[in-house]
Specification:
Elements (H helix, E strand, L loop, with lengths): L29 E8 L18 H4 L7 E8 L4 E8 L4 H4 L11 H10 L1 E9 L6 E3 L9 E3 L4 E5 L18 E3 L4 E6 L5 E5 L17 H6 L37 E4 L9 E3 L11 E4 L5 E6 L3 E3 L1 E6 L8 H4 L6 E10 L19 E11 L10 H6 L1 H7 L5 E2 L1 E6 L6 E5 L23 E7 L8 E9 L9 E2 L13 E6 L4 E6 L2 H5 L4 E6 L9 E5 L5 E7 L6 E6 L23 E7 L8
Parallel strand pairs: 7-12
Antiparallel strand pairs: 1-31, 2-3, 3-4, 4-5, 4-6, 7-8, 9-10, 10-11, 11-12, 13-14, 14-16, 15-19, 16-17, 17-18, 18-23, 20-21, 21-22, 22-23, 23-24, 25-26, 26-27, 27-28, 29-30, 30-31
Bound molecules: MU-OXO-diiron and calcium ion (3 copies).
Length: 598
Amino acid sequence: APGGRGPNPRLGFKAVEPNTVDAVTVPKHYDHRVVIRWGDPVAADAPEFDFAGQTGEAQEKQFGYNCDYVAFFELDDRRGLLWVNHEYTNEELMFDGYTDGSAADLEQIKVGLAAHGGSIVEIERVRATGAWKLVTKGERPYNRRITATTPMRITGPAAGHRLLRTQDDPAGTEVLGMLNNCAGGTTPWGTVLTCEENFNQYFVGGEDAPAEAKPALRRYGIATSGDTREGNRRFDRVQERFDLSKHPNEANRFGYVVEIDPLDPTYKPRKRTMLGRIKHEGATTRITEDGRVAVYMGDDERFDYIYKFVTAKRYREGSRRHNDTLLDSGTLYVARFTGNSPDEEIDGSGALPSDGRFDGSGEWVRLCDNERSYVEGFSVAEVLVHTRQAADAVGATKMDRPEDFEPSPVTGKVYCALTNNTARTPEQADEVNPRANNKFGHVLEITEKGDDAGATAFGWIVPIVCGDPEDESTYFAGYDKSKVSPISSPDNVTFDARGNLWISTDGHPGTFGNHDALHAVPVEGRHRGELRTFATVPAGAECCGPYITQDQKTVFIAPQHPGDGGTVADPVSTWPDGDFPRPSVVSIWHTKGKDIGF
Ligand code: FEO
Ligand code: CA
Ligand code: CA
Ligand code: CA
């Protein structure tokens, strides 16, 4: 069939060659346009961006830094809302002469706080193409900035627990801001799930935290010895709560999935404790056979885990009020994987075992539900705040940095990007993480028992072991490797409507010397494994997004941290305007209006 609908989906574009061009590059017959840049107006009264004279007050009204997850909500056939995560800040690219947070002036630290979080902006189609632009005139009732200081409600079973209480919030139910929001997802009821990842880097004073708090701080990567102020952004110089020697529980209030309603500007963001506290990469939903909602989540750290949450209650279409309660009760699981090939056949080289597949079975191991803990020595609230330690206790499978998830809209199979793990030794290689010194990462495919997202058992296979196809340790589902593009460090993933998997990367420069990219690959039929590069991003950037609109005519990508590795005085990127680098969101479309990928 034209465009490859049906059992053998395939792609219709010619792959972009790996390159080091300081620009977004797209295939022949495609075009692209910057939709919104760091500093562009979000609030109606936002001042014009002034690079040399930035203030926290201005940044709170302007588009934030380092765009990661992108989602799009159609308002009508001409307009829509873009949700964008602002994961973190590169102060050395934002402020001329910046050295570190201890030397920074306080206004720069305020800009940093305000440049984190997320943005909701109204965008409109540029007539007859997949180009979109920011709406800057007239009423924009939905436009909103969420920052590292926006008040949020803590909900679910851990809300109010002693581990979440602080001097500023003795009830343990309200926190200011969200930090390091990496990937995310949307819900069937139209909200955004935005996920706090490397929140550990914002705290100081761990060396003087109470002794009983230190093991848990360390398990989440928060330093508890040495000079914790050195090289830190020093948010504590503006808000003392970031100093753990004085406010040791503040760190327990970050690391959650945050729910935000883009269509309700008055909605107070909710930190959903029921989904656990980890370095949440993303959160991707799927409806179970019986109408409940499953959420797939990765904890992006070497040797950390894959999680699933399943709601207790059913999703009710159209009942906004009911659906707002769904993520506060249910069951939290962690994944345990078992390979089906003999251990001695998995030697860490990436060589396939004798059955020709890295595959096996798995179980979702219960950690807790909203009423009961299934982990000895942990209460429900302790499972939800010290989720990593609870998962350690049940012997979950240690993975190669689980990043984003996405289910195929065609088959229901669920895909996870495992970005890399150079610390895995040959002895630690197992069938689901089969390569030692895993520099390039791999892709995991999970088939739930009975194709039910609520199942507690599943089958799995590793369809792609990433890298240069000429490298023997790579595998592209058995496809002819002379016909595939190189890929390193898969990160964010999405699907097109035909069931092709789209993978953006964060690691090409360090491994291949060329720039990060967006790739597409069929995962069913004769072309399974035929991976092609669709776009590349500017110097220093990782490729985030990607989001393909419902009509399949636009893909949004977010080149994050363009210019990384340089400084204001010594830039390595001048994208997109030819002066200083600005993290931005870009739309890409086919010039003859074909669907993305064809
Ligand atoms: Fe923020 Fe795991 O990438
Ligand atoms: Ca096998
Ligand atoms: Ca990521
Ligand atoms: Ca995704």
